[in-house]
Design goal:
Elements lengths: L7 H12 L3 H6 L1 H14 L4 E7 L5 H9 L16 E5 L4 E6 L4 E4 L5 H9 L11 E8 L8 E5 L9 H11 L5 E7 L6 H12 L4 E6 L14 H18 L9 E4 L2 H8 L6 H9 L2 H43 L10 H34 L26 H35 L23 E11 L3 H9 L7 E11 L1 H94 L5 H4 L3 H28 L7 E5 L2 H12 L10 E4 L4 E5 L3 H9 L5 E7 L6 H13 L5 E7 L7 H17 L8 E4 L3 H11 L3 H16 L6 H12 L1
Parallel strand pairs: 1-6, 1-7, 2-5, 7-8, 8-9, 12-14, 12-15, 15-16, 16-17
Antiparallel strand pairs: 2-6, 3-4, 3-5, 10-11, 13-14
Bound molecules: guanosine-5'-triphosphate and magnesium ion (MG).
């Protein structure tokens, strides 16, 4: 029967739902979600995972074949198994291969099933896992461990050269199993390696079963002095000793099973076994092994399920702790710097503007060119605008024109300088604002320095006719009536404007300007862009830092919300099991009407159950201790007087020993409940005397509150009882609430006191110390200290085994104390 209804799967689902409720959360908790997914997959089938591990060739696969009733797994003397193979029950034989890339391949029930499996699971066929297998799953209808068990075969430990095998087994399999079957052989030495493996298993704190395989190979000792059985027994003791010395916690829970896997397999996998095979099978002790594993699973199941929930809850706690830490220092105020985007926009615009400015100059130059040299340019007819509009089309270029051109080019130049400077300024402003080192400041002074253009002139040879001067010539001219002209040709040189050359030079000038500006633009923009880029990068960095911070703040705020949800979920599940425990309590209460101390109400479910058992046991023990005390002191037929200072102690004792329901025993009152039983609460010495006098011989049960032991209040009562005892009476000192004086010394002192009391009475040794404590271990320990009677010894042993099974019932300190008492 399943005791706990808290399902680890439900819990995992719920946590996953919370963690994946938004895209943001999904991203943030991706690894957590993965974790839950992984465990969920392991637990989905609700089966107990039993891992079979052990050194190479110890017979793991042989044993599993026997359990499968089908020799599907490859078996060999060399290291063979290379994969984790999960084996379970199914109506049909089948196998599924899971690959590392997430794909899977189903192999149906074919005659070649075994051959197919070998292809993936055996080192010989799938060397170094070339086939990228993640895992195999086998099912057979003959599987011996039932539907709710998943048995996992693993590669052998310590095979030299196959370290990956060991890694797979110890790191991948071991952390995920609920129970370990550790396979070794009867022949194997209990060496360092085996001890190491036991310690590794111990880390995972799961139940362990040890199998010593190859029982069939055990022979009597060579000298013939020891039979095979004796040899086997010795070998088992060696392993038990190794367990004793290991770090395994519940050592007494570790069972060792000696079997012959090969003989079990031969019989189980053969539809028509021979008689000899059947005999060997019986000697193989396989059935004992199967029963042992089943028992282990049955007894551990509730614990395993609880453990699974605990695993999740612990993980959840870790997550909460970790996220709390991560978000605690995130201040919720944002320092979003909107200026950053402004800076970025600013310099990007400046870059564009300056670029356009220089580019425009080139275009304007083009227009000037077109204006003057329309033949060369189709742009001649275009509407002239901007700086060039001042020009009118002319055939020649005179000084004025040149002056104009110079003027315009100057304007270009100053505009370019201005623009470049403006850009540089914005850059340096940005750099300053960003507080970047000044070396990042960039200036550009590669503006074109151009020779000036001028009107070209040329020198030409000229000739002219001039009248010669002189009186004679004038007379002569008059005489000849003009026939004599008196002229002469005169040669001279003159410098004139060379239109062609000027035009040509202006043409070249403009073209060159264009080229220079284009170069400038190129050089400048390369530099400027890289400057802007680095500023931009810086800005991007800062912006993303801010964004990250914003995200952190968002995350931190979201975490607050998320935490609430997770906590609620945590409480619900952690609380659920508590609530169930409480119900059990209530049932215990209903059934037995026992009042329960606060200490145990906090105990987990299984302890509540144990409490129930212990409580019953306590009744039995106290009843039997009481009876036993009467018996051993031969006081059965004497009337009983119960005396105490405390009404609570009285009612407790009467209920436990006589099943008398609680009544309010008020102080200074005595009751005669029957001829055999009288009760007195805080009686005076006289009252005690008269009570004792009324009877010939009485068993006086003096109940003492542990807290009051040796106080004046208690001593007075004890003295008056003691003084009034007659030789026929017997004193049973019964200590209640022993816990307060539960250290070895106090208990020993108590025992000494009662012996002293007894010795002072004439008929000494008639009584003994009884204890009425909620923890029966103390009772047993102290009674044991007073008697070595077999019956009580047995009960002590029973209780020992109970506490060994539920170790948390008695803390280590308490155990030590008890041991002290038992030894004293
Ligand atoms: N005598 C004897 N031999 C056995 C027994 N069980 C297994 N063997 C033999 O031991 C060898 C190894 O058996 P396997 O089952 O392959 O061992 P394994 O532990 O799976 O080995 P790996 O997969 O390599 O780790 C084989 O030759 C088996 O026949 C047994 O009970 N008695
Ligand atoms: Mg194997």
């Amino acid at each position: 029967m399943r005791l706990i209804t808290v399902k680890e799967i439900d819990l995992a689902n719920e946590v996953k739902r919370i963690l994946a409720s938004t895209e943001q959360r999904k991203l943030r908790y991706a690894s957590e979600l993965n974790w839950f997914e992984r465990w969920q997959n392991l637990w989905a089938s609700d089966r107990i995972r039993v891992g079979v591990i052990g050194v190479t060739s110890s017979g793991k696969s042989t044993l599993i074949n026997a359990l499968l009733g089908d020799d599907l797994l490859s078996v060999a003397v060399r290291p063979s198994s290379s994969q984790l193979v999960s084996c379970s029950y199914a109506k049909e034989r089948s196998a599924v291969v899971y690959f590392l890339n997430g794909e899977k391949k189903r192999v149906g029930d074919t005659v070649r099933l075994k051959e197919t499996i070998v292809q993936y699971s055996d080192e010989n066929y799938n060397k170094r896992n070339q086939k990228q297998v993640a895992q195999l799953e086998l099912s057979t209808p003959n599987f011996a461990l039932g539907e709710d068990v998943l048995l996992v075969d693993s590669p052998g430990l310590d095979a030299t050269g196959y370290e990956a095998h060991e890694k797979l087994t110890l790191e991948t399999l071991l952390p995920t199993v609920d129970i370990v079957v550790f396979v070794t052989t009867v022949k194997s030495e209990v060496d360092k390696k085996m001890k190491q493996t036991l310690d590794t298993i111990a880390k995972y704190d799961c139940p362990v079963m040890i199998v010593q395989n190859m029982l069939d190979a055990v022979r009597p000792s060579v000298d013939g002095k020891k039979s095979a059985a004796t040899v086997a027994k010795e070998r088992m003791n060696r392993v038990l000793l190794a367990v004793e010395q290991s770090a395994i916690k519940n050592k007494s829970d570790v069972k060792v099973s000696q079997i012959s896997a090969v003989n079990a397999m031969r019989y189980r996998c053969n539809p028509n076994p021979t008689e000899q095979e059947e005999r060997a099978y019986k000697a193989a002790r396989y059935d004992d092994f199967v029963a042992g594993v089943k028992d282990l699973i049955k007894s551990k199941r509730p614990e395993i399920e609880k453990q699974r929930v605990r695993t999740i809850l612990e993980h959840l706690e870790d997550l909460i702790r970790q996220e709390d830490k991560r978000t605690e220092n995130v201040s919720t105020s944002l320092t979003a710097d909107t200026a950053l985007t402004a800076i970025s926009d600013n310099i990007t615009c400046a870059l564009e503007d300056t670029y356009n400015d220089i580019y425009n100059v080139i275009m304007e130059l083009e227009k000037i060119y077109a204006k003057y040299f329309s033949d060369d340019s189709e742009a001649a007819g275009r509407k002239i605008s901007g700086l060039v509009s001042a020009f009118l089309r002319k055939d020649t270029l005179d000084e004025e024109d040149i002056a104009e051109i110079k003027n315009v080019v100057k304007k270009f130049e100053s505009k370019t300088i201005e623009s470049v400077q403006a850009f540089s300024e914005k850059c340096s402003m940005a750099i300053e604002k960003l507080n970047l080192p000044a070396r990042d400041l960039w200036s550009y002074n590669g503006l074109p320095r151009m020779p000036e253009v001028s009107v070209k002139t040329k020198v030409v040879q000229r000739r002219r006719t001039v009248k010669k001067s002189g009186i004679l010539r004038s007379i002569l001219r008059g005489i000849t009536f003009g026939l004599y002209k008196g002229e002469e040709t005169e040669y001279y040189t003159e410098t004139i404007r060379d239109d062609e050359a000027t035009k040509e030079s202006v043409k070249r000038y403009i073209k060159r300007l264009q080229r220079e500006y284009a170069k400038t633009l190129d050089a400048w923009s390369t530099n400027a862009k890289s400057t802007v880029l680095s500023i931009q990068q810086e800005i991007d960095l800062r912006v993303s830092a801010i964004k990250e911070k914003e995200q952190q703040v968002l995350d931190a705020n979201d975490w607050k919300q998320l935490r609430k949800e997770l906590e609620k979920c945590f409480k619900r599940y952690a609380g659920k099991s508590q609530k169930q425990e409480k119900n059990v309590y209530e049932r215990v209460n209903d059934d037995t009407n026992v009042s329960i101390g606060t200490k145990l109400i906090k105990a987990p479910y299984k302890f509540a159950q144990l409490y129930h058992a212990a409580e019953k046991y306590l009744h039995a023990v106290q009843g039997s201790v009481f009876n036993y005390a009467m018996e051993i002191k031969q006081r059965r037929d004497y009337p009983v007087i119960v005396i105490s200072n405390s009404p609570d102690n009285l009612s407790d004792f009467l209920f436990r020993v006589y099943q008398i329901k609680k009544t309010d025993f008020r102080r200074e009152q005595s009751y005669c409940l029957s001829n055999e039983l009288s009760v007195a609460c805080s009686p005076t010495a006289d009252q005690i005397k008269s009570m004792l006098e009324q009877r010939s011989g009485a068993n006086v049960f003096l109940l003492i509150n542990g807290l009051q032991f040796h106080t004046e209040f208690e001593t007075i009562l004890r003295r008056s009882v003691q003084e009034n005892l007659r030789p026929n009476d017997a004193l049973f000192l019964t200590i209640q609430d022993f816990e307060v004086l539960s250290n070895g010394n106090a208990i020993s002192e108590c025992l000494r006191s009662v012996r002293m009391e007894q010795n002072t009475t004439a008929n000494g040794e008639k009584g003994m110390t009884l204890i009425s404590h909620k923890n029966p271990v103390y009772n047993m320990a102290i009674i044991y200290a007073q008697t070595t009677d077999v019956k009580l010894k047995e009960e002590t042993e029973f209780y020992d085994s109970l506490t060994a099974r539920f170790p948390k019932l008695v803390s280590e300190i308490e155990k030590k104390r008890i041991n002290n008492i038992l030894r004293s």
